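In response to the reviewer comment on reproducibility (Comment 2.3), we provide here a single inverse folding case reported in full, input and output, so that an independent group could reproduce the run without further information from us. The structure tokens appear first.
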């Protein structure tokens, strides 16, 4: 077995173990596929003076794809509340700022200098599995750090919007879909009008 294949197997095993420990928090049994990663990175917007923030970095496939898309590591911040996953993510993407804390604290943890300077927030948390109040808190943090008029991306395994747009005062649309993911996934873009 090659070193790359061994690392991929190890990463998949870590992801699966964390899924067994808390399936609702993980949302999927396997890391995001290459097709889903491409679909997400195609939609990221980040001006020269902005950064990208990821909520739910997991084992890092989206984080690595964001780097491969041309966003430099010093302009990428990844929140991962699970300590084991955060530790793995720091090893996989050592130059990225990995914050092992709750993404709802993002405005305070990123600080005043970055609030309003985030071009895109990518949410990898399975929002549909959480109560509406939790979703509101995540979105409040999201819009406090996003640039004015910005949108966030959310990937989901549901065929319909994973967020109740009316209840959360959101506008949004499905930006893409791929069958080449386990399970098949959609990428949604949301903003406040």
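Designed residues, in position order:
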């Amino acid at each position: 077995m090659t070193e790359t294949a061994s690392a991929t197997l190890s990463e998949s095993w870590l992801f699966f173990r964390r899924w067994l420990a808390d399936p609702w928090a993980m949302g999927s049994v396997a890391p995001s596929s290459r097709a889903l990663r491409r679909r997400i990175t195609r939609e990221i917007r980040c001006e020269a003076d902005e950064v990208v923030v990821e909520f739910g970095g997991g084992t890092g496939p989206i984080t690595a794809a964001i780097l491969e898309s041309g966003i430099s590591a010093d302009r990428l911040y990844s929140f991962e509340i699970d300590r084991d996953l955060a530790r793995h993510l720091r090893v996989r993407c050592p130059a990225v700022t990995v914050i092992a804390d709750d993404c709802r604290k993002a405005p305070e943890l990123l600080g005043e200098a970055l609030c309003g300077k985030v071009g895109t927030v990518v949410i990898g948390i399975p929002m549909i599995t959480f109560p509406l109040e939790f979703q509101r808190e995540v979105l409040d943090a999201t819009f406090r750090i996003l640039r004015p008029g910005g949108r966030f991306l959310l990937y989901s395994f549901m065929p319909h919007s994973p967020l109740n747009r009316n209840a959360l005062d959101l506008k949004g649309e499905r930006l893409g879909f791929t069958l080449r993911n386990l399970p098949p996934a959609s990428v949604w873009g949301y903003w406040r009008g």
